[in-house]
Amino acid sequence: MKLLLHTCCAPCAIHAAIEAKNDNFSVTGFYYNPNIHPHSEYDKREKEAEKYFRSEGLNLICAEHAAGTFFNNIAGKTGLPERCLMCWRMRLGETASFASKNRFDAFSTTLLGSIYQDHEAIREICEDLSERKNIKFYYKDFRTGFKDVHRIAREKCIYCQNYCGCVFSMVEREERRKAKQLEHMAHST
Ligand code: SF4
User: Fold this and answer.
1) Relative to the CA of 80, which ligand 1 atom is closest?
2) Among 13, 49, 67, 127, which one is most buried in terms of CB atoms within 10 A?
3) How far away, in angstroms, is 35 Cα from ligand 1 center?
4) pLDDT at 150
5) Mean pLDDT to the nearest integer, 133-162
6) What mean pLDDT is predicted for residues 115-125?
């Protein structure tokens, strides 16, 4: 059975690809992430994903960055959780459409392996898309491999990003870093 696996990044693909192969899927990755900012970071994650899929003898389809799609969709939805709901639906909608048009048997996403994302919301979006686009959704809780994934990524020298992807998450990461720095300075004076 042919599975199109939406791939957000190489580390998250590790466990998802293993699980899908164990469940007898022939896995093809689909790198479609218009949310990632800036373009250099998009390229970096894409190259790491390509390197990982190649090392496993798997195909990875790389779509265009299409950053404009993210910014067009985000208008009026910069707050949480609207922003992330839009982001997941945008990426997974394109994945389900591609899978349906190109005769895959099912689709899924490496986002189901993240402990930082809303797992149930992602699952619900995929189930809804499965009905709308007439393509099976392969569900599995890939979070079970989260700890192993980081060990394997370190061993294989795979780049692990330190923010989710969009410009908002990049700014939020920086704000958290500065707040910690200020707290540390306050305690050491
Ligand atoms: S925080 Fe992550 S999931 Fe939410 S909009 Fe940004 S990139 Fe997408």
Assistant:
1) 4
2) 13
3) 7
4) 87
5) 94
6) 97
Cβ of 165 below 6 Å from ligand 1: yes
Ligand 1 pocket check for 92: Cβ under 6 Å: no
The chain-wide mean pLDDT, for the chain, equals 96
Residue 97 C-alpha to ligand 1 middle, in angstroms?
Answer: 21
Q: Is the CB of 169 under 6 A from ligand 1?
A: yes
What are the structural domains of the chain? 2-160 (3.40.50.620)
